[in-house]
Design brief:
Elements: H1 2-24, H2 31-38, H3 48-54, H4 64-81, H5 84-100, H6 105-118, H7 122-135, H8 139-153, H9 156-165, H10 172-184, H11 188-205, H12 208-224, H13 228-241, H14 246-259, H15 263-274, H16 281-292, H17 296-310, H18 320-329, H19 333-346, H20 350-362, H21 366-377, H22 384-396, H23 400-411, H24 414-417, H25 422-426
Helix pairs in contact: 3-4, 4-5, 5-6, 6-7, 6-8, 7-8, 8-9, 10-11, 11-12, 12-13, 12-14, 13-14, 14-15, 15-16, 16-17, 18-19, 18-20, 19-20, 20-21, 20-22, 21-22, 22-23
């Protein structure tokens, strides 16, 4: 009997050891892969190319080519630094080009429209797309622009029609939009397949901007699909191309935080990035990681930095969505509600309605929140962040079947939602 008991005890201990090993097995990042990129120099906000074209622009300049090239450089500086002033300076150059162009005006309208999309001025971008169409040149480029704008505005049927109009499986621009459309529909596998084709197209062309765009976006898709190592490797490939790429560094920080649950290392990566890149939302991620590791002082400091950054006038409506959540967390409900309504007016998407529903919910108006969820969100989006808020609203209104249904999806999206959200999802 004692021998049998010993046998089962040993078997039990071996099982525990095997389970422990199994939990430890899995992909892990290596800081030696990315440390050299964290030490990369800040993005230079000038270049010989920029200075050449800038020198040709005077207050009364008719140098259209110079205006377009300088605007392109300003946009590159904005991407590198996160400083809104460069996006606004690009806008000024493009607006001047639009004003004086007699030939090629459609192209300048499209470039300015894309600048407005970056600024979340979507209705103005749509007006510029319509003006570009009136010019008649660059029809396919204008149709692609219409797809982009209508996707942002939530006009999905129109967007799909424009996507069909530019169908060309050998075109990079079509492939990335096809990937975006399938992601919107919730078909992540198909979205990945088309984004992989786009990446292959970028590799054959050796176009650096196309490569960076496809690598970082495909890395995001891989992360959503649970392919963490593939995601990590693509962020590293992006950094090999552009050692200063803040988006790729942020992506690695997220992997370290959400997959490995190593908040301190994630903060080290993020702090290094913030020394050179100043996008306000990076401070919100810092606040979230600080909350995860239990550092309340650091969290409040990061939130304070975020608030100071977004007060800059140039940001306009770019951070409305972030600000709604920020004000809800700070229990400044009237400001949150006002901004959520403005965001719905600017872009009536399920995402915007999700902000409005949660604003009502935070104020205690759970029935109104449920009405918005059922009318504008249910079955219209697959974004875990929106669905988690919808689940809370369903739960408060006693819709337990809906909660159960959403919880299954959300548990599978814990990596995307982050460790701070995990207890909330499990409590649903």
């Amino acid at each position: 009997m004692n021998t049998l008991k010993l046998k089962y005890t040993l078997l039990f201990l071996m099982t525990i050891v095997l389970l422990s090993c199994k939990q430890e097995v899995g992909f892990k990042t290596n800081h030696e892969d990315y440390d050299r990129y964290l030490a990369a120099e800040p993005v230079k906000t000038t270049s010989k190319y920029y200075e050449l074209w800038d020198s040709k622009i005077k207050s009364d300049s008719l140098q259209l080519l110079s205006l377009g090239n300088v605007a392109s450089e300003y946009n590159r500086f904005f991407q590198g630094t996160g400083d809104i002033k460069y996006l606004k300076m690009a806008e000024q150059s493009l607006q001047k080009a639009v004003d004086i162009a007699a030939v090629g005006k459609a192209g300048y309208y499209r470039a300015l429209a894309r600048n407005y999309i970056s600024q979340h001025r979507f209705k103005e971008a749509l007006q510029l797309a319509e003006k570009a169409r009136e010019m008649g040149s660059g029809v396919k480029d204008t149709q692609a622009l219409f797809f982009d704008v209508h996707m942002e505005l939530g006009n999905y049927e129109k967007a799909h029609a424009y996507l069909d109009s530019i169908g060309n499986m050998s075109d990079f621009g079509y492939l990335i939009r096809l990937a975006k459309w399938n992601d919107h529909k919730g078909d992540l596998d198909t979205a990945i397949r088309f984004m992989e084709k786009a990446a292959a197209k970028a590799e054959s062309s050796k176009n650096k901007s196309m490569l960076l765009w496809s690598y970082t976006n495909l890395a995001d898709f891989y992360g959503h699909a649970g392919r963490i190592e593939d995601s990590y490797q693509l962020y590293l490939r992006a950094l090999q191309l552009d050692p200063q790429n803040a988006y790729a560094k942020k992506g690695i920080a997220w992997i370290v935080y959400s997959h490995e649950r190593n908040g301190e290392e994630a903060l080290r990566i993020l702090d290094s990035t913030l020394m050179k890149h100043q996008s306000p939302d990076y401070y919100l991620l810092k606040a979230e990681i600080a909350e995860f590791i239990g550092n309340e002082v650091l969290k409040l400091e990061a939130l304070d930095n975020y608030y100071k950054k977004v007060q800059r006038k140039g940001y306009g409506d770019m951070y409305n969505a972030y600000n709604v959540d920020f004000y809800i967390d700070m229990e400044v409900h009237e400001k949150a509600m006002k901004l959520a309504k403005k965001e719905v007016e600017n872009r009536p998407t399920p995402e915007s309605y999700g902000l409005l529903a949660y604003s009502y919910f935070a104020k205690g108006e759970k029935e109104k929140a449920l009405e918005i969820v059922e009318k504008h969100i249910a079955g219209k989006t697959f974004e875990p962040g929106i669905l988690s808020k919808a689940a809370e609203i369903y739960k408060a209104n006693g819709k337990h079947d809906k909660v159960k249904e959403l919880k299954q999806e959300l548990v599978g999206a814990i990596y995307e939602l982050g460790p701070v959200m995990e207890p909330e999802i499990l409590r649903l």
